[in-house]
Amino acid sequence: MNKDLNAPILSAERAAMWFPVRGGLGKTTGYVKAVDGVSVQLHARQTYGLVGESGCGKSTLGRLLCRLLEPTDGRITLFGQDISHLKERELVPFRSRIQMVFQDPYTSLNPRIRIGDALMEVLAIHHTGSRSEQMEKALGILDQVGLRQEHFYRFPHEFSGGQRQRIGLARALILNPEIVLCDEPVSALDVSIQSQIINLLCDLQAERSLTYLFISHDMSVIRYISDRVGVMYLGHLVEESDTEEIFSHPAHPYTRMLLSAVPSIVPGDKTDRIRLQGDPPSPLDPPKGCVFHTRCPYAKKECGEKSPELSELAQGHYCACPIAAAGN
Ligand code: SF4
């Protein structure tokens, strides 16, 4: 039990996930450094938004935090316990307390199993209740995510994208978890459906005192839903702050570029767009020094020499760019 009320309920401490690249005869020829020394903390009943472009390592960090992956280095702590290297059997008591919602729940649903049975299966795996209690819980959770009782008997292909995401939420919530990791849960949906799912997530958080890690590449969605935001680039956390602070005073050039790319609906808004040079480098061979220096419009010679650490610019606002920290 986590006794310190201010302590994070889930954290990564300099977590790293390097995937080996195998050559001929299975020999390791290098590593894809998907996550490289990232520290984040999730506090109870808050939403931590993790943002960055595709391939920056945000989904890998999410999988590390819920121990679907074992970290290469660093530490993952859940409810005060180090779970970094626990075996699958030792993780069982934690599995019901932390659940995930993915971008496309359809791929994780068996097309030949009715939705009600898929929900009851989750409870059966965790040995929760009798069959009639499982059925009652499954019907109850369908109602809570905005589906009807008749949906219990339908197959996955009979649902729309938004309804499938509600099913994904139902499957995650049926075990009454305290933490839900949402990995791009609305990116595949139409804008009007996106807002319904986001509002549902907010309502469920208030009703069930949930803590969310919300992963997205969409700055507008992140701003709406998050209490705190972390910006990732090429496996590194480059900036972190409370939501309003980071959106009103973005410091890292990469965060400023992401914000400048958000389209404005204000007529005549001529916010200068910061354009990046080149493509993102490969995480197989990341640049030396600041990983962003090959694309940064403000890069100086020293940026390619030393990897910058996060430093505190204002209370709770951290940035891994000494040049931004110096106000240049
Ligand atoms: Fe750009 Fe240099 Fe700052 Fe990196 S350290 S973000 S390259 S200015």
Q: Can you walk through the features of this model?
A:
The structure is a single chain. This protein is an alpha/beta fold and 328 residues long. The protein has one domain: Rossmann fold (3-Layer(aba) Sandwich). It is built from ten helices and twelve strands. It has helices spanning 58-65, 88-95, 115-125, 131-144, 161-173, 191-208, 219-225, 243-248, 253-260, 322-325, and strands at 10-22, 28-42, 47-51, 73-78, 81-82, 98-101, 179-183, 211-216, 228-233, 236-242, 311-314, 317-319. An eight-stranded mixed sheet has the order 6-7-8-3-9-10-12-11, sandwiched between helices. Helix 3 (115-125) packs across helix 4 and helix 4 (131-144) crosses helix 5. The longest helix is centred in the middle third of the chain and has 18 residues, at 191-208. Iron/sulfur cluster binds at residues 252-253, 290, 292-293, 296, 298-299, 303, 308, 321-324.
Average pLDDT: 91
Compressed to H and E, one letter per element, the order equals EEEHEEHEHHHEHEHEEHHEEH
Largest sheet strand order:
6-7-8-3-9-10-12-11
CATH architecture: 3-Layer(aba) Sandwich
Name of the top-level CATH class: Alpha Beta
CATH H-level homologous superfamily name: P-loop containing nucleotide triphosphate hydrolases
Low-pLDDT stretches = none
Helical amount: 25-40%
* Bound chemical compounds: iron/sulfur cluster
Number of DSSP strands?
Answer: 12
The major pleated sheet works out as: 8 strands, mixed
